[in-house]
User: Which sequence fits this backbone?
């Protein structure tokens, strides 16, 4: 190390104040040189030339000492964060993006080289669906007997809600603590009008 850097303080704040003081001194000397050059314009004075030369030397010394003090600091190595892989139990939907079968540059046939695979975690919101129970009626031509399968049982007699919807409403209310009026608003966004009193 040089003698200039040996005499530097170890405190970061002291170094900052020293650098800012030197910057201010450099600016002051630059302004003085510019002023002296303006006054020199049109007449030649050896005393003025000597003063300008002396100021330029001291300015160069300050700039060199400041450059020595502000040595480039190497950035600290960043910790590489490894993402956990997406859970294996989630269903996967594969979209294959095929390029054209011919080279766009020369028109030649392309050969398989490999593939890059990336995964994106996507959320598909819950959807309503209507299950239609169709029970065809059959009639016997001989005895005019009508045959029809009995209707499947419902959780609520003559109600429109299926078991999945009822389970969702109950879990949202008692496990997720989602009030019924909010559930009604959520269902309305999906286009299904379910009043709070119905829920």
Assistant:
């Amino acid at each position: 190390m040089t003698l200039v850097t040996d005499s530097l303080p170890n405190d970061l704040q002291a170094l900052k104040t020293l650098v800012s003081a030197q910057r201010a001194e450099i600016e002051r000397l630059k302004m003085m040189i510019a002023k002296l050059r303006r006054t020199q314009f049109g007449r030649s004075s050896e005393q003025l030339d000597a003063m300008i030369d002396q100021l330029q030397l001291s300015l160069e010394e300050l700039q060199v000492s400041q450059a020595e003090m502000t040595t480039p600091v190497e950035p600290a190595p960043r910790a590489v964060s490894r993402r956990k892989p997406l859970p294996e139990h989630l269903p996967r939907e594969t979209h294959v993006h095929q390029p054209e079968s011919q080279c766009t540059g020369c028109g030649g046939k392309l050969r398989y080289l490999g593939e890059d695979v990336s995964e994106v975690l996507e959320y598909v919101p819950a959807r309503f669906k209507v299950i239609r129970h169709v029970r065809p009626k059959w009639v016997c031509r001989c005895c005019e007997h009508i045959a029809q399968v009995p209707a499947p049982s419902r959780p609520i007699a003559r109600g429109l809600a299926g078991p999945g919807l009822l389970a969702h409403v109950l879990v949202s209310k008692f496990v997720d603590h989602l009030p019924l009026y909010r559930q009604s608003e959520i269902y309305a966004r999906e286009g299904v009008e379910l009043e709070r009193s119905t829920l």
